[in-house]
Amino acid sequence: MQRFPDAQLLCVDRDPEVLAIARANLHDFHSRVTFQTGSFADLATHLTASGLSNEVDGILVDLGANSFHFDAARRGFSVLHDGPLDMRFDQRDASRPTAADAVNTLSEVQLAKIFRDFGEERLAKEFAKAIVRQREERGQQFSTTRDLRECIERIANMWRSSPPKGQKALKKRGKIGNTHPATRCFQALRIYVNDELEHVEVRVFQQEDEDESDDDGEDEDGDDSAEATKKRFRLVRRKATKATAEEIATNSRARSARLRCLERVR
Predict the structure, then answer these.
(1) Residues 72 and 187 grouped into a single domain
(2) Domain that holds residue 27
(3) Is residue 87 located within the same domain as residue 163?
(4) Of 66, 107, 129, 239, most Cβ neighbours within 10 A?
(5) Does residue 185 share a domain with residue 87?
(6) What is the pLDDT of residues 1-58, one digit of tens each?
(7) Where are the alpha helices (DSSP H) in the chain?
(8) Is residue 158 a part of any domain in this protein?
(9) Do the strands 216-221 and 58-62 form a parallel or antiparallel pair, or are they unpaired?
(10) Same domain, yes or no, for 178 and 92?
(11) Residue 125 domain-assigned (yes or no)
């Protein structure tokens, strides 16, 4: 905004708390910035509501959760902090199920598919089976992040020490890069609860005909989500840009971030 004094910026986020943080950070440019609560999949609607043209020069999409989500235990995103098992980006949306609703109601097959498809979890079936067994045989419901974390930890520890006959022992993945064994399951539930991949597909693959300008789009993600189709976009750079060592030293979470720049083809 400092470099381009004539630029106008529209900030869209499904989480009103995240928008409040952005509003504070961009206070110096308030006359040129508009904020809308909602999904970037509805970009055209937000542009119209803000009185802006549908022709944009660039779009920056920051996929996944915000650092704020993991730091605020009450939001239920973090595997490290005990809090309500929520994970909704917009907690005001009572129509959207929470992560607790998912683990307390979905079948073993459904949970395994979520862990496998959205988390690429090797022990998806085993974790799903343990969750269903705990709630059905033991009559225990999952209401906090701790409930789910401890259930997954028990199974992960069993596989590390004495895997079933014919199966290879699970490597101590929880010790590599300080990654907890429940991290992939938590990520998968977050993506499921917020329908994240659907929002990406709607915005990128179904709405590119909204304007025919030579738009540039930038995509930052920590979860390696959907790839852009080659027929509609070209990669400005073949390799994703990673954070520098200096940035990682000041912000360790930047180590998993990847910046991909796409240009839409006419």
Answers:
(1) yes
(2) 1-51
(3) yes
(4) 66
(5) yes
(6) 999 999 999 999 999 999 999 999 999 998 999 999 999 889 889 999 999 988 888 8
(7) 16-25, 43-49, 67-71, 99-105, 108-119, 124-136, 145-161, 183-193, 196-205, 245-250
(8) yes
(9) parallel
(10) yes
(11) yes
45 plus 124 within the same structural domain: no
Which of 107, 110, 74 is closest to 188 using CA atoms?
110
What is the share, in percent, of the chain residues with pLDDT greater than 90? 59
Residue 137 counted as domain residue: yes
Q: What are the tens digits of pLDDT across the range 49-84? A: 999 988 888 888 888 888 899 999 999 999 999 999
Cβ–Cβ under 8 Å, residues 112 and 124: yes
The pLDDT confidence band at residue 173, using thresholds 50, 70 and 90, is very low
Q: Are 43 and 86 part of one and the same domain?
A: no
Query: What's the burial of 100, exposed, middle or buried (CB within 10 Å: 0-12/13-18/19+)?
Result: buried
Q: 151 or 256: which carries more pLDDT confidence?
A: 151
Judged on CB neighbours under 10 Å (0-12, 13-18, 19+), 246 is: exposed
**CA separation for the pair 172, 195 (Å, rounded):** 30
86 and 177 housed in the same domain: yes
Closest among 70, 68, 16, 10 to 40, alpha carbons compared: 10
122 phi and psi angles, rounded to 5 deg: -65, -35
Q: How far apart are CA 81 and CA 200, in angstroms?
A: 28
As for how many domains the chain has, the answer is: 2
For 1, residues 6+ apart whose C-beta sits below 8 A from its C-beta are: 7, 9, 26, 28, 29, 32, 33
Shared-domain flag, residues 117 and 179:
yes
Q: Tell me the two tokens of residue 209.
A: 């005909």
- Which pair of structure tokens corresponds to residue 192? 């499921």
3-state secondary structure of 233: strand
Confirm whether 148 is domain-assigned.
yes
